[in-house]
Amino acid sequence: MKLGRVRNIVVVAGAGISTGSGIPDFRTPGTGLYANLAKYDIPYPEAIFNIDYFSDNPHPFFSLAKELYPGHHRPNYVHYFIRMLHQKGLLLRMYTQNIDGLEKLCGIPDDKLVEAHGSFATAACHLCYTPYPAEEAKQAIMKGNVPICTFCAGAVKPNVVFFGEDLPEKYFQHAEDFPKADLLMIMGTSLKIEPFASLVNTVKSTVPRLLLNRDPVGPFERRPLRRADYMELGDLSDSVRKLAEILGWHTEIQDLMNSHENGLRSYTDPSNSSGTAASKQEFQPPQNSNKCLWSATKNPNILLLRCV
Asked: Is 86 a catalytic residue?
């Protein structure tokens, strides 16, 4: 049995944390984004996020961008669990691969968030990098037009990181996060894309790494695991809710979700019944897992992690 104090949690997250909001992940066979791109007439799935292909033909990405732009979906329980980590003073930083903006929408502050693959919040010319008003770019894209740089006439795109582009500067500004972490939580990611995938290997070897995912990924696919590695496999929302129940946080999170949603405008697409239902239905506590047990302490800034 291992007992440790946790107060500097780093969260590494991918598209799987947003599936509960009705947004498909990228790689799930049959339902993932890459499995449903035939309508965009591209040579291979990843081409839609390839900067060289975009330079030749930006239209497929802009067609997809209409669906990806923030505004159609709401944060789900997983997002609010991470916000609760912040409110408890336990979140050192969240590193996300997602471009859906749901982390910010649920209230995770900008200084606690690294959007490793960029976002739709800003836009620039893909050739000369001249900034372009993000709202004007969005309006053009939504009308089926390609926004054009007024300086060099290149195609403007949201500052979402494509294959072949550099990661945002902010990604490199917090190099001390991982050596400082005393718990690494890995959620809803395939750990297929570098350099993001290698982040999980930069914590100290004695630091617990907890994978909450559908399948083993990255270093969790190899045996033997580190002594401080733990996995909770299956539906991510269920796994996160288990942890919330064990911590005694579930009611707080549910109240936070309800109060925050009351203050949001109607961001959810009416056709997205799964995102709406996930945010409003009360969770029924599952049976406790004996793989990894968390408990709160009298000090609100300290969690106890006990794994067997």
From this structure: no
